[in-house]
Amino acid sequence: MGSLPPFSDPPSKQAVNLIDQTTLLNLFKSQQNHLNFFFQNLDLSQTLAFTQTLLDSTGTIVFSGIGKSGFVANKISQTLVSLGIRSAFLSPVDALHGDIGILTHGDVLVLFSKSGNSEELLRLVPCAKAKGAYLISVTSVEGNALAGVCHMNVHLPLEGELCPFDLAPVTSAAIQMVFGDTVAIALMEARNLTKEEYAANHPAGRIGKSLIFKVKDVMKKEKELPVCREGDLIMDQLVELSSKGCGCLLVIDEEYHLIGTFTDGDLRRTLKASGEGIFKLTVGEMCNRNPRIIDPDAMAVDAMKKMEAPPSPVQFLPVINDQNIVIGIVTLHGLVSSGL
């Protein structure tokens, strides 16, 4: 058995070329010119027909593409899904091995391809037609094969790729993305999608939380509330002030009507001003009788704005119902922890 060949020495480090600011700026300007060419030469009648077809579709809008066009097609499909539009991505390779089962009669199949001559997409066309789908090609090369076999074609004008060899799909992918996302927003507006409907599709993100969560969804309530009576001595309520983690006391009467608030800041100021006299002071004597409050049905994001409003920010808001009864407290920490 022969011995293993010795390790070869690592290649010597080659000099690293640096790019200067002028070269970089010229590249961005060239890309801008390519994009301007697209905007100036896009056939709006084709785009309108394409958008209207998607809007009128009663089936699933399925996107497909190969390579970089496939990534763009997948992203646009996900955008439509986030807008509540039934959409999916279909890999042209996997489609011929079973995934074409997603297509049904009445679906729209949108095929993204720069050249319009991708063999994988051309093989997909007759199979998709047999399933009863309506086919639309979105291409950049004039007179391509894909446009000739689809029901509709949209031409995306391409002056050239930013790539110095005019090969890497840099500009073509950019205009595909711009085209697809702009059409998606046109569909969004045509369907009169509301903020609430949009948020319903993004419940875990900050967008959804800011449009869905109400104060009553994030407030502390019942045994979590740091409450006391106005006749209680301040020093007798230190445990309540510190243990509930709200940084305040909610001063209430026997029916839970809000009288005022007393904060840990109020405690420090009172101690500094009164010294040992604090042992004889009641919460009611030192509380703020005109605190900011919030309704339980207000949006949580509005509660945060109210806390941060002038003249000075606060860390909490008592939650009051229409009978001025305390039913909860919302804190800045609680809002931040919930993802707002």
Automatic annotation (TrEMBL):
One of its GO terms (molecular function) is isomerase activity. Transmembrane segments: none annotated. Residues 219-281, 287-340 form the CBS domain. Residues 50-193 form the SIS domain. It comes from the Eukaryota. GO terms for biological process: carbohydrate derivative metabolic process; carbohydrate metabolic process. Keywords: CBS domain, Isomerase, Repeat. Gene3D superfamilies: CBS-domain, Glucose-6-phosphate isomerase like protein, domain 1. It holds the Pfam family CBS. PANTHER family: ARABINOSE 5-PHOSPHATE ISOMERASE-RELATED, PTHR47476. Belongs to the SIS family. GutQ/KpsF subfamily. This is Arabinose 5-phosphate isomerase.
